[in-house]
Amino acid sequence: MDNRVEGLHHLAISTADIKSQIDFFSTKLGMELVALYWMHGAKETCHGFMRMNDESSVAFVQSPRVSNAPPRLGETHAGNPTAASAAGTTQHIALKVRDMDELLHMQKRLRANGVPVLGPVDHGFCTSIYFAGPEGLSLELSFSTAPIEPTRWIDPEVVALAGIDEAELVRYRAPARFDPADAPTMRPGPEAPGPHMSNYPPGVYEKLIALPDQAIWDASENEPPVKDPV
Predict the structure, then answer these.
(1) How far apart are CA 198 and CA 202, in angstroms?
(2) Which of 88, 103, 122, 126 is deepest in the core (most CB within 10 A)?
(3) Contact 97, 110 (CB under 8 A)
(4) Domain spans of the chain, in order of start
């Protein structure tokens, strides 16, 4: 069996107003709220999950610190699906629907709830509509009728512009299989090339990555906040 990433489990988005995000994704997009609890391992931070299917969600993370990081167009937010934002930030989010009928249904639902919608737009390998979400989110709904055909959609001009040579392109299109050793693989330390997680208090990240995997597992918080649902 070939081991690989199989899909989106959850996409976590920072928010200063989790209620407004829950209301938008529920009322305007018809998504169910399935979890809302204090985020494990994060003080004063709550986590909400809006269901896409049994394994995939759009998630929101709210903490008092989010309000202290004001949005800046062209930096923290793109503002629309074709504008720029800072490297490593979310430019836009595309969520999947089943087909054209569902896409047009969602277009009508959004417009009936006062949300301007652009599209449908035929992109060749997918069809999409575009609209804004709370707090400056740039959102898209899309469907595809067939897998993307790489020979048609990998543009040699853009490949060259990205600095990708022929051998690299072959490797990127067909990643090498990884066969791990039977023995545990040691976690790289802070001196490793990374990338590394950041924005921890001084010294905390170094202590965390020095812990054995079993210690991280033993610290898991896995009990739901409601013990005896009615």
Answers:
(1) 10
(2) 103
(3) no
(4) 9-65
This prediction's pTM? 0.91
- Residues 86-101 have a mean pLDDT of 96
pLDDT of residue 125: 96
Q: What is the CATH number of domain 9-65?
A: 3.10.180.10
* Residue 1 confidence (pLDDT): 53
Q: Write out the chain in H/E/C secondary structure.
A: CCCCCCCCCEEEEEECCHHHHHHHHHHHCCCEEEEEEECCCCCCCEEEEEEEECCEEEEEEECHHHHHCCCCECCCECCCCCCCCCCCCCCCEEEECCCHHHHHHHHHHHHHCCCCCEEEEECCCCEEEEEECHHHCEEEEEECCCCCCHHHHCCHHHHHHCCCCHHHHHHHHCCCCCCCCCCCCCCCCCCCCCCCCCCCCCCHHHHHHHCCHHHHHHCCCCCCCCCCCC
| Structure token pair of residue 126 | 């997918």
Q: 64-68, 117-121, 184-188 — which one is most confidently predicted on average? A: 117-121
pLDDT greater than 70 at residue 148:
yes
Tens of pLDDT, residue by residue over 23-56, are 999 999 999 999 999 999 888 999 999 999 999 9
How far, in Å, CA of 196 to CA of 206, rounded? 10
